[in-house]
Every structure is written in structure tokens, then in C-alpha cells.
Amino acid sequence: MEPSHVDEEHAIAQRAFAEGDLAHAATHIANAIGAHPGNAGYLDTLERILDSAEDQDTLFPTKPPLSVGQAACRAYALGRSGDVAAAIPILARVIIAEPDAGLLDWAESWLDEEVSTTGIGGMTCSP
Asked: How far apart are CA 121 and CA 19, in angstroms?
């Protein structure tokens, strides 16, 4: 996706969020994160969307077809809520599907903290 298109996806997500349309915002921020997962502004927007949602499970599909961005955001939401064990298999599929998209580095940036805080499946891990 061209950078200008990705920025437009982010802008649409921000407008939809401002209007209270979280589902619409989630769709567009997933597109932006799927294209450029390392963008801190995109992650900030995703955080605000998740913080505002009564039920994060409704924002991103749970069954195929899912875009890479939707799956990545679903994994992020799961990891953020402490369900790292459910997030990891989704992340693995996303990284395999798009190995050059930068999703492994993106996931590592937030997963390290979640794993050290909550563990995986009740097991706490340390380096």
C-alpha cells in the first residue's frame, strides 16, 4: 500500500473514532497497521480505539477471512488484555503470511512486556 493511502486509512480511522464509530475506526486502523506496523501514531490510535470499546472482541473478526492487519490488531488486543496464549498463534500465522511486513518486530515490541508481566498460559517467563 502506498504511504499516502496508509496515511488516509489512518485519517479515516481517526475521523471515525472521533465520531464514535469504533467498528469503522478499527477497520481502517487495521489497514494502516497491516501496511506499516511500526508506526507509533497508528498504534496510539489503535490503543485509543481499544480503550473506548466496551467489548474489544467485537472490533476485529474472529473467523476468516481476516486481513493481515485485522489479525495483527486482534492479536494485539488479546495480548493487551493478558491473553498472550491466544495472541501468539494468530501472530504466528500473520508473520508467516507476511514475513517481510515488519510484523515480527512490531509484535516483539509489545509482546516482550506482556509475556514478562502476565506469562503465557499461566506460566511466567524470565529472560
From this structure: 37
Q: How far, rounded to the nearest angstrom, does the alpha carbon of residue 89 sit from its chain's CA centroid?
A: 14
Ordered by start, the domain boundaries in the chain are 3-118
DSSP string covering 46-91: HHHHHHH-S-GGGTS-SSSS--HHHHHHHHHHHHHTT-HHHHHHHH
The single-letter code of the amino acid at 114 is E
Which class does domain 3-118 fall in? Answer: mainly alpha
Is the distance from CB of 34 to CB of 69 less than 8 angstroms?
Answer: yes
Most confident of 2-6, 56-60, 73-77, 109-113: 73-77
**99-109 confidence digits (pLDDT tens):** 888 888 888 87
The pTM score is 0.84
The alpha-carbon radius of gyration of the chain (Å, integer) is: 14
Confidence of residue 121 (pLDDT cuts 50, 70, 90): very low
